[in-house]
Amino acid sequence: MPSLLDIRRRIRSVKNTQQLTKAMKTVSAAKLRRAQERVMSARPYADQLRNVLANLAGRVENIAHPLLEIRSEERTLVVVVTADRGLCGAFNTNLIRATQNFLREKGSNSGATLLPVGRKGRDFFRRREVSITSDYVNFFNKLDYGNARDIAKIITQLYTEAKIDAVYIVYNEFKSAIQQRISMEKLLPLGRSDLGNAQDTPTEYIFEQPPQQVFDRLLPRYVEIQVYRALLESAASEHGARMAAMDTASRNAGEMIESLTLNMNRVRQAAITREIIEVVSGAGAL
Fold first, then answer.
1. Contact status, residue 64 vs residue 71, Cβ threshold 8 Å
2. Catalytic residue among 54, 81, 88, 155
3. Residue 103 maps to a domain
4. pLDDT 10s per residue in the chain (286 long)?
5. 88 in active site
6. Domain assignment of residue 20, yes or no
7. 158 part of a folded domain
C-alpha cells in the first residue's frame, strides 16, 4: 500500500495536470470562436464560386483547360490535412486511418503520392513506405490565404504537367465544437459534374472577355479557395476537438483527485487507529 506521502504527491501532480488541461481548454475555446467565424465567412464565397463556374460550364461549350482534362487515375496525389500538435483526441488518428483506408482501396499499383499538411501526418507517413512530394507544417497559428495559394500552386502545376492524374484532399469538416466529420473531396480534375449543377434559376452572364480567359482565371482560383476552405475547416475542427479532449481530461483528473483523496483519508485513518491501539495497548501493559 502506498504511503501517505506518496498519495499526497500524486494528488499534487494530478492537480497540476488539471490546471494545465483547464488552461488549454480555455485557450482552445477562445481560438475556436475566431476560427469558426473565418469558416463561416469562407463557406459562402466558396459555394458562390462553385455556382458561377457551374453556370459558366453549362453555357459555354468546347472549353479547354488543363485542369478540366480527365485522365485515368494511375497516379494519385492525396493532400492530408492534419494538425501540428496532439492532445486533441482522435482528431489526427481518424484522419490518418481514413487516408490509409483510401490508399488501401486504391491498391499498391495506384502510384499514390502524399502531400501532408500538418506535422502529425507528415511524421506518421514519413516512417511508412509512402511517397511524399512535399509537406507544409507550422503555419496553422498564422493561417492566411497565402498558405493555400502555395499549396494550390504545387497541385495545379503537377496536374498541368501531367505528373499526376487526380488530386484528393482529406480533412476534418467542422460541424460544431464537439462534432467533426472526415471529408474526402476530389479537387482535380474539375469535370462538369464535379462542379455541380447550375442553379434552378440560371444566371445570365455578359462576357467582357472571352470565356476561355474567364475560365483560365477562375479555375486556379477555385482550387485555391477549396484548399483554403479545407485548411480553415481543419483548424476550427482541431480547436473544437482539443477543447472537448481537454474538458474530458479535466473531468477525469477531478475524479482521480476524489479517488486519491478518499484513499488518502483511509490511509490516514488507519494510521491514527493503529497509533491509538498502540497507546491503549501500552497503557494496558502498565
1. no
2. 88
3. yes
4. 678 888 899 999 999 999 999 999 999 999 999 999 999 999 898 888 888 787 777 666 677 778 888 888 888 999 999 999 989 989 999 999 999 999 888 775 567 899 999 999 999 999 888 888 988 999 888 899 999 999 999 999 999 998 999 999 999 999 888 889 999 999 888 766 555 554 555 566 677 777 777 778 888 899 999 999 999 999 999 999 999 999 999 999 999 999 999 999 988 888 888 888 878 887 777 6
5. yes
6. no
7. yes
